[in-house]
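Example record for the data management plan.
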Amino acid sequence: MIFTPYQPSERIAPYIEAIFHYKDFVPDHSIERVVPTGHVFIIFELDGFERHTFDNQTLKPNATYTRAWVCGMHRNHISISAHENSEMFVIQFKPHGSYPFLHVTADMLNELIVPAHEVMDESLYELRDAMIQAEDTADKFALAEQWLLGRFDEEKLPPSEIPEFIAKLQAEPVDSLNALIEAYPASQKSLIDQFKKYVGLTPKYYQRILRFNDLLKRIQNKDRVSWSDIAYECGYFDQSHFIKEFRHFSGFNPGEYICRDYNKEEPNFFPLDRQQ
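Corresponding structural encoding:
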């Protein structure tokens, strides 16, 4: 697979987590589970393949996506299709960064994966067509940058306290939430309202996502895992609480997760039907 990241310009970089283009992806599976990371995405297929989401229990297809779509904040895992020889272009917003570009508050996109035209006009489809015509990856990035700059509305930026709060929480995802709430310059209700508007989730739920992703990083590529130690390090109340959270966000219990060697995979993508 050819994977190429892009660093956006200084003006919009504070609101963009990542922009990347990949092609010639040849997976050994057709369905993969995605763990929530606390981001909103714009996703383009550049290969003409239909993408699908699946029911997490039955793994039967429940929706189809083509051209370009927007993926909002998700509270737990989703199951999506993987395709051979695929080519994709992805814009991943920082947790507080989607509203100035999509012009839709983050909470309006919660739990949704929707065709681009349901969020905005046809401009994302036009951008996708232009990127297909641009053979050079650098030209695709230039087109995306131009589109983002054209959409950027500074009047929809969050107050500075929100990204500052998020940055502090990301630095210490285990047990800093209460202290950060107490230090916030406005009321707790104001914080929650602003968080829902710009992030889509409450601070507490967002912290749960951060903590679970921190847990996955702690156990990645480890041959042996002491679940009791991990649960304690990550601030879970007890073993039952830990297992419940693990299953909620991943769909697996911790033992099954290790048995399938998912801690040897990318931390947020797990193949569900790997070909032997």
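Summary line stored alongside the record: DSSP finds ten helices and eleven strands in the chain.
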